[in-house]
Amino acid sequence: MRYCALIVLLGADVNTNRQDIQDYFESVFGAKPEIRRWAKSKGLPFFLLDEYTFDTVTLFGCQCLLLLAHEPFENVAKIRKHLDVLKPMVDHPILYTTDALKSYERKRLIEAGIQFVVPGNQLFAPQLGMDLREYFRGRHVQKAVMGPASQALLIAAIVRGWGKDFTFRGVDLADGALYSKMTMSRAMKEFESFGLIEPASNEKSPRWRFVATPEATWEKALSALQNPVKRVVYADRHPLLQRAAGQSALSKVSMLAEPLIPVIAFSKDEWDQEVQRSGCKEVGQFDEPVFEVEIWSYSPDHIGGNNGLPALREGVDPLSLYLSLKDDVDDRVQISLDEMMEKIEW
Fold first, then answer.
1. pTM, entire model
2. What CA–CA distance (Å, rounded) separates 39 from 56?
3. Which domain of life does the UniProt lineage start with (predicted)?
4. CA angle 205–157–332, rounded 5-degree value
């Protein structure tokens, strides 16, 4: 029998129980799963046994592992740490389960890649869907992500904002010198495929409109947006251009303390040019660097605007900043990100 891991975390003082899970899965998949105690749980670390009870669940011939937590939901970082310990042991999908989640908690779980189910309400379990594909011969669904140029164009548009009657052509979203017509056309196709825009005219060179407000567009696109940071290097001297990024930028719009080593951002081409201009050299992390340099997949300079977003002229835009730090396990960073996002006047 082929195994897939369905790891379900249930708080001890919440109302969700195995019967709730069984009934909900039956309503979703049209079949009642079989749930039993997992015999191999004795081999797990004691701290996991103290935290959880382990059962197996079988659905459509796919045997999964059910993990019931002894405590209610606390925070994403703690759950992720526990799952990171479990993954090498079971090598299977993991599903967190509780009877209720606040909207920002659901968003955090999705952003962290943690699958979850709220029985009777919501199921986010893409890996489980892939494991059951032999029984559901529907359309093949792939995790789609937006390309770097399209992401930069979208964030630039959101940062600038738009009104109710705003329409545009692809070339209107950025300076023609920054992106080619082909890149603009590809971006429009991506925006349309993600349901972010719709045609506003039938002209040969069509005009488009966003289907929702900037805030709703950001929320809808969020799962397709990527961390812009491709790699991190360290510089031995002050670059001529210093664009705050990472925790340095976040510290300017929140109560977070500035990091010991300032963080700045460049695209690859921009950094190569900066090295030639300033004579900066890349050094090791422990060689007393003067700056930490994030190399982005798109230019931070291509995004700017004058709306309510709390970005500084010398720093990266807040939405790209959010994407670059949303997976940071430091609770102080997550609290500061929430503080920053709450200041946005969409």
1. 0.59
2. 9
3. Bacteria
4. 155
